[in-house]
Amino acid sequence: LLNSYIFCICPLYLVDAVRVYVNSSSENLQYPVLFVVRQQKGVLSWQVPLIFRGLYQRTYNYQEVSRTLCPTEPTPETRPSDQIIFVDIASMAPFNIAYELLVTRLENFQLETNKAFNFTASPSQPQYFLYRFPQDVDSVIINVVSDAAYPCSVVSVQDIVCPVYDLDHNVEFNGVYQSMTKQAAITVQRKDFPGEQFFVVFVIKPEDYACGGSVPSSIHGKLFWEVDLIHQSTWGSFILAVHRGAELLPCLSPSPCSGPDESSSSGGRQLSSPERRPPAGSDTDSSVEEESDFDTMPEIESDKNIIRTKVFLYLSDLSRKDRRIVSKKYKIYFWNIITIAVFYALPVIQLVITYQTVVNVTGNQDICYYNFLCAHPLGLFAVFLLCPPTDTSFMYMIAGLCMLKLYQTRHPDINASAYSAYASFAVVISLAVLGVVFGKNDMWFWVIFSMIHVLASLALSTQIYYMGRFKIDVGMFRRAVMVLYTDCIQQCSRPMYMDRMVLLIVGNLVNWSFAIFGLVYRPRDFASYILGIFICNLLLYLAFYIIMKLRSSEKLLPIPMFCIVATAVVWAAALYFFFQTLSSWEETPAESREKNRPCILLGFFDDHDVWHFLSAAALFFSFLVLLTLDDDLDTVRRDKIPVF
């Protein structure tokens, strides 16, 4: 069987595109029908049934095939002329095979800016269209929307070169491309195409596994698409948020630190009045009358273990170390955070540059999880104004350092050292990495993590309750059992430090609830789960601190009150935009693009950018809260400031 046809296409448009449709009822794979189309600048061929291979060598056969021929564009020196197309049909079958051949002209081959266009495609019937940059347009976003999540598709932007790669096995050979389910967006610049025009190619995959679908797919039908080209300005407005962190200070204010002699005068006096603590700022010292009622041991003035056993502690009891030594100790926090920031930022920058270079070289835009509907080119990098892969690690450290800063204001002598604090953060970040890898489906990880979480909460609670006097060693479990037996079983006595006990009970209930929730529901976003634990503990301790401050007859001045209200309002607004998920690296790139949204601020910034702006302002107000919360104690002696 051998037939040949000659078609003459008369020019009606500046660029003529011709589409060839063939159909054959034969399903005999041993004797396929071969179609060869010869043009002035190329040859295109395929067979019917058309065979696509999927995962595990699965095959998918299609009886209908439709291809767009590469258009011939007249040169500026010549006028449009007739196109001659030869179509040869052949088969080695020893019997007759029925087929259908249809050649049509595409009337809507050229796309227009800001004008939606609807079309259909299938694995054996790909589509591509032409776009020309208008004179006043330097950059456009190609926005493609599908009416169904599957089948999996690929959108490609290719230069005006024949042949056009419009099949599943070769669409990645040229240009840039994205996989998609329901939405895709590609930013294209005029400078990248010397001819100021390009092809937009649409290919349907025979299987959906590349987009996160089931394996294999039984969908062989056509897919309805809508493509829209949006004009995008080359530049926009920039906003720079400058973060300034709160320094960990060795004491509350300059005035209490300037009198080291004050701390040594309160060690034994305060033991004599356990029933009632005087309000902050009071000049009455009832212990003066009672000093003669008993003898004070010299060790009380010097032994920290004896001092910290008092029912009511004051700041002077926990600020007995030399001020210069404490100041140097807390400066280590600052220098370590600078070092960590540098070592953390450099690999991130290297990663962004490397992956963006790979994207530019290969054209594979599935490598990066951008919000492609609001991605603006900047030189060689199609990146956002804020572009690290993740910022949750620093958020862990910010929340943890805020808790340490709040604890340090009333416990300057027993606060954690910089080395132990940052080592703890390193352990948390390591657990977060393991959770990202194993936390999705592995039950054993959640069991181990929940046990670590509960035991760490108990150990930290013990250290806080006993003011650092509880030793963590082999015998700690035996001592804990003895304390529980004597205080809770043998005789149910009232806790010596009731306020601390209430805080720790509530804190442990919150952390145990997190552990149980993680064990039962196993949230997929493990990094945000860890961040939620840090934030809840920070808010809980801040609330406890403010309540105890008011209980101790201390005041909240107008400035810290304003900062607290501003912090709550700005954080609420920031978290609203934080939870507007614009991409998800836990899903396939195609599924992640379903969450992409257009810019919402100045035509340049998206929801995540707004989150960064608002969170920067919220952090500023949060640090102001930490720095001004105890401004009412600037003129109060340290032996009058209670510890809680």
Describe this structure in words.
The protein is α+β, with helices and mostly antiparallel strands and about 650 residues long. It is about 35% helix and about 20% strand. The protein is built from 14 helices and 20 strands. The protein has helices at about 255, 285-290, 300, 305, 325-360, 390-410, 420-440, 445-465, 475-490, 500-520, 525-550, 560-580, 590-595, 605-630, and strands spanning about 1-10, 20-25, 35-40, 45-50, 50-55, 60, 65-70, 85-90, 100-105, 110, 115-120, 125-130, 140-145, 155-160, 175-180, 185-190, 195-205, 225-230, 375-380, 380-385. Strands 10-12-17-14-15 form a 5-stranded mixed β-sheet. A 4-stranded antiparallel β-sheet has the order 1-8-3-4, with no helix packed on it. A 4-stranded antiparallel β-sheet has the order 11-18-13-16, with no helix packed on it. Helix 10 packs antiparallel against helix 11. The longest helix has about 40 residues, at about 325-360. Belongs to the SID1 family. It comes from Zosterops lateralis melanops. It is found in: Membrane. One of its GO terms (cellular component) is plasma membrane.
